[in-house]
Write a structure and sequence with these properties.
Structural class: alpha+beta
Oligomer: single chain
InterPro entries: FecR
Protein name: FecR domain-containing protein
Number of strands: 32
Shape: elongated
Organism: Paenibacillus aurantius
Helix content: 25-40%
Keywords: Coiled coil
Pfam family, one: FecR
CATH class of the largest domain: Mainly Beta
CATH topology of the largest domain: Jelly Rolls
Length: 660
């Protein structure tokens, strides 16, 4: 495995852990409701590679252990990978391999022997897996289950991704067959090589056939880490071998418009003519090459990495395995009937609208959750602070009363009366006379007639507030002139009330600061995307949605802000967009321990967010410098919107060579 930038890069999954935690707080991410198998089976999986941070919990255990190479895994073990991390495991008895990607949560639900067959089942809550399944016998079973779908396979190279926030499952095959079943409806479909499907939650459709399309390579690469792309490339010879065998079978099934069927599931792929069948098989041959080229275009791998891998594979195979200059674009219409195209043209916009509404609801939930956490923390602190305040007030009253009594005890009778009289006038009310109303004030101590030096709190001498001298009123004299003659007062000249000045709208600017030097000696450089804002209203929370190029990769470093305190609560999410774009969603609340108040308004320009990135400057184009802000929202400590942007605004980032 390449120990280089590959171990650092991901397509922006940093915020996924916090997003999932926040959604769990508000009940938006239901669990799978699984039981943990405590017993160990006789079958074992072995860790073959590990990068970054990965842990495993044994069946029935609560302690997590660090994963290491050659570690044995059993039925019931729970694997979790961190940011920019991966784990590769291999089933000892079958040789099947699984590359578990970053931010994945995987449970080995069943590794068992049943009669003469072997059953292997994996449950995945989040993340992605690239699988290389060795040929299974008639009684063997291999399944991967997510919250929305169940995938069953035979000998297959395939990819599955589970999105915990939308509960969507994305599946595509490079070779072999994959049966995909919707957990909600029971509907199932058969995927052939180069086909893909996304299964949503709660039974979006009764029939899965219209959801099957030819693979969108740009989408697949966005979902994949550099490790997965590398593994796909390394598996190319095995993929080609399986495809050659598969073509012979499919040629008989698909000839004259036939249908591929496996275990009750059928493929919607149609080939009425030999020419259409030929275009389908051409896609089979071009898939791996297109994935590698797209990985280069999206910056998931560098040219030096790919060339080194191709040379290594050439030496091992004794000949060229892949020539990128000969790769042809995949035909996304191959094997898709006109009727299916019509159904998809109607279905996909409807599903996208439903999905967007769900995402918007979840994005608002993130900010609401941040505010709620702040309120709960503030409520507990405010209650404690109020108790301390009341205790301090009571203590001060008691000490003042003690000092007063000590002072009065040293006065003669007349001196005491004079003091109390002055106190009554100063406080504007009655003051009880100590010693006459049942109090315990001791009488004066006999002594010399001169007044003793007071001890304790001295009296306050009331100061009379002088009344303002009224201004003379001008009288109307003859001819309307002011004069000394009595008469009606002249009407004062009215003063116009100035119209309120509308506060200027907050203004964003973006700058890309490139740091000197490359990362690990490769083409990638560390950079900061600085988002600054001017004319900030008084606020407690802020939410920004930003569309940016997929060439920018989230680095494994913390964000910073000049506008928000270091103790802020925040969420940072990268979400895939169509084409070569991705969406950044940032929400933060200005929570500070012991405080729960809006930050003051400011006209000064301050940095709202500094986002660490990795980028290859040689790949950047003018299009990559475009940033589209679709939402910019400020709320106060009561959760009320104080300013919300309208529409989408385009910004062009300025490239700088220092990050100050």
């Amino acid at each position: 495995m390449i120990e280089s930038i590959s171990s650092l890069r991901r397509g922006g999954r940093k915020g996924a852990g916090l997003l999932l935690s926040l959604l769990l707080l508000v009940g938006l991410c239901p669990g799978l409701g699984t039981g943990i198998a405590a017993a160990k089976s006789g079958r074992v999986a072995v860790v073959t590679e590990v990068g970054g941070e990965a842990t495993v919990k044994s069946a029935g255990g609560s302690r997590a252990y660090e994963v290491y190479v050659d570690m044995g895994l059993n039925q019931g073990d729970y694997i979790r990978t961190g940011d920019h991390s991966y784990v590769s495991i291999k089933l000892q008895d079958t040789g099947s391999e699984f590359t578990i990607d970053a931010n994945s949560e995987v449970y080995l639900s069943e590794l068992a022997k049943k009669g003469s067959g072997k059953t292997s089942k994996i449950r995945m809550w989040a993340g992605a897996i690239w699988s290389k399944i060795q040929h299974l016998t008639g009684t063997d079973e291999m399944e991967i289950e997510t919250s929305s779908a169940v995938m069953g396979v035979r000998g297959t190279h395939w990819f599955v991704r589970a999105n915990p926030s939308t509960e969507e499952t994305y599946v595509t095959a490079a070779s072999g067959l994959v049966t995909v079943k919707d957990r909600s409806t029971g509907s199932q479909v058969l995927l052939l090589p180069t086909q893909q499907i996304t299964v949503g939650p709660r039974g979006e459709v009764e029939d899965l056939d219209p959801k099957v399309t030819i693979v969108d390579v740009s989408e697949l690469v966005r979902y994949s880490s550099p490790e997965v792309i590398e593994r796909i490339l390394r598996n190319k010879q095995d993929i080609d071998k399986e495809l050659e065998e598969q073509k012979k079978t499919l040629e008989k099934q698909l000839a004259n418009g036939g249908t591929a069927v496996k275990e009750g599931a059928a493929s919607p792929l149609q080939t009425e003519t030999p020419e259409k069948l030929k275009s389908v098989f051409s896609n089979f041959d071009q898939m791996v090459g297109n994935i590698v080229k797209e990985g280069l275009d999206q910056g998931k791998m560098s040219a030096s990495e790919v060339n080194r891998l191709l040379q290594e594979m050439k030496e091992q195979a004794g000949g060229e395995v892949l020539n990128l200059s000969e790769v042809k674009t995949i035909d996304r219409s191959a094997g898709v009937s006109d009727e299916m195209k019509r159904l998809q043209a109607k279905l996909f916009p409807e599903l996208e609208e439903q999905k967007e509404k769900l995402i918007q609801k979840q994005e608002q939930t993130i900010l609401d959750a941040l505010l709620r956490i702040g309120r709960e923390a503030y409520g507990a602190l405010a209650e404690k602070r109020e108790r301390l305040h009341q205790a301090n007030e009571q203590y001060e009253k008691e000490q003042a009363e003690k000092a007063k009594l000590a002072y009065l005890s040293q006065l003669s009778g007349q001196e005491r009366e004079d003091f109390l009289e002055r106190a009554r006038k100063a406080e504007g009310g009655l003051v009880p006379v100590p010693g006459t109303g049942g109090g315990n004030v001791p009488g004066p101590t006999p002594g010399p007639s001169s007044a003793p030096t007071p001890t304790g709190t001295p009296e306050r001498t009331p100061v009379e507030t002088p009344s303002p001298t009224p201004a003379p009123t001008a009288s109307a004299g003859p001819g309307g002139s002011p004069g000394s003659s009595p008469g009606s007062s002249a009407a004062p000249t009215p003063t116009a009330t100035p119209a309120p000045t509308e506060a200027p709208a907050p203004q964003l600017t973006a700058a890309l600061n490139l740091l000197p030097g490359t990362v690990n000696g490769e083409d990638y450089r560390q950079a900061y995307l600085d988002i600054t804002v001017q004319n900030v209203p008084a606020f407690y929370g802020v939410q920004v949605e930003l569309d940016l190029s997929s060439r920018f990769i989230k680095a494994d470093s913390a964000t910073t802000s000049e506008l928000l305190p270091s103790s802020r609560l925040e969420s940072l999410i990268f979400r895939e967009r169509s084409g070569s774009r991705q969406q950044l969603i940032y929400a933060a609340a200005a929570y500070t321990a012991g405080e729960y108040a809006d930050l003051p308004a400011s006209a000064a320009q301050k940095r709202l967010l500094r986002l660490p990135l990795l980028v290859d400057p040689a790949l950047l184009t003018g299009e990559d410098m475009r940033f589209l802000v679709s939402k910019f929202k400020w709320v106060n400590s009561r959760g009320e919107a104080v300013w919300v942007s309208s529409g989408t605004t385009e910004y062009t980032a300025v490239v700088r060579t220092d990050a100050n």
